[in-house]
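input
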Amino acid sequence: MVAIGPRPAGSPGIRQTRAYITKQMEAIGLTVQEQAFMATTPVGQVPMANLTVTLPGKRPDRILIASHYDTKPEKDFVFVGANDGGSSTALLMELARVLKDKPREFTYELVFFDGEEAWGEWSTGNTFGSRHYVDAAKKAGTLGSVKALVLLDMIG
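output
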């Protein structure tokens, strides 16, 4: 992912990263669901997409393990997010590989958020992917099945 370079939401880099994550998950036999949406940011409408991989358990109750794979849009320097979205996404992909064949009591949902980084200052817009995920789950009536969320971020 670092070799791809900057990957702010809506960029060619984020699309390449999304394809990379999907290819890696499919290579180990997992299905990726894409949750595409348009986010209203301080620079206008930006296309974004969360990715989810579901590992069914004995119960439908879900434990979410999440990361983000975007980088902050920077103009003054090259920001590749190695210790941010890169490290947490790498861990999430490895967890998918390790957990996929293990028996599970709960259903695990691995969520790769897009658009989590701030556009400008933190007060001007951020966490687009996670907020969209929650809004969609509320509308679908599935938020109640989430029993825990573990957020991976800046672990490298």
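quick obs: Residues 12 and 125 are 21 Å apart (CA to CA).
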